[in-house]
Design a protein that fits this description.
Radius of gyration: 21 Å
CATH superfamily of the largest domain: Superoxide dismutase, copper/zinc binding domain
Structural class: alpha+beta
Number of helices: 1
CATH topology of the largest domain: Immunoglobulin-like
Number of strands: 10
Number of domains: 2
CATH architecture of the largest domain: Sandwich
Distance between the termini: 55 Å
Bound molecules: copper (II) ion
């Protein structure tokens, strides 16, 4: 083995170690807290209505180390009215019936989950879903909640659920007014963690 072969071998070895390091770091990051991806299968609150869809949540750390959660939701169906619909993370992982999802997710010592009474100050408050021609899309990022463990985690003792409301969320500019956060409940989806696989892509789990 001549000098140039040894040099090339060293570079290859160095790159291999760096690559393995990146993979290990990524796996550790994904496993830190155990829940950095989540999903929800959305269904109509009125049994028999044609509304269906899915939401995906992904947590990542910003450059400043802040946990950011992106939320993407798609909804469609013959019974999904066009226009804007309020969407929030509600405090309990139950959709049967949709009222069982209870108020808006708002943990902490001064928790106030009242939908119209403490709005838009809840941690679970999001933006409106915009529906056109029977298809609704929402994409937003929030730093109010986390998927990983911690005081803001939506995976608390009783879990969390999305609620899509019949009306737009006005964000209650005049304080508490009945229905200002979106009124009745149109669709619901229990938020479930997605466990990362050790090899290959993510595996959806209950
Ligand atoms: Cu709500």
């Amino acid at each position: 083995m001549n000098v140039s072969q040894i040099f090339t071998g060293c570079i290859f070895l160095g790159l291999s170690v760096a690559f393995v390091g990146v993979v290990v770091d990524d796996a550790e990051a994904r496993n830190r807290g155990g829940k950095v991806k989540a999903q929800a299968k959305m269904r109509a609150c009125n049994v028999g209505d044609d509304i269906r869809g899915r939401a995906v949540l992904k947590e990542r750390r910003s450059d400043q180390g802040v946990k950011e959660v992106s939320v993407t939701m798609f909804l469609r169906g013959d019974d999904l009215p066009d226009g804007e619909h309020g969407v929030h993370i509600h405090e309990t992982a139950s959709c049967e019936p949709c009222g069982e999802a209870r108020g808006h997710f708002d943990p902490g010592p001064n928790s106030n989950t009242s939908p119209d009474g403490n709005h838009p100050f809840h941690l679970g408050d999001l933006i409106n879903l915009d529906v056109n021609h029977g298809t609704g899309v929402l994409h937003t990022t929030t730093t109010r909640v986390t998927l990983s463990d911690g005081p803001l985690s939506i995976f608390d003792e009783d879990g969390s659920a999305f609620i899509v409301h019949i009306n737009p969320d006005t964000f209650c500019p005049n304080g508490e007014e009945a229905g200002c956060a979106g009124g009745g409940r149109l669709a619901c989806g229990i938020i479930e963690s997605v466990k990362p696989r050790s090899h290959g892509g993510p595996r959806w789990s209950r």
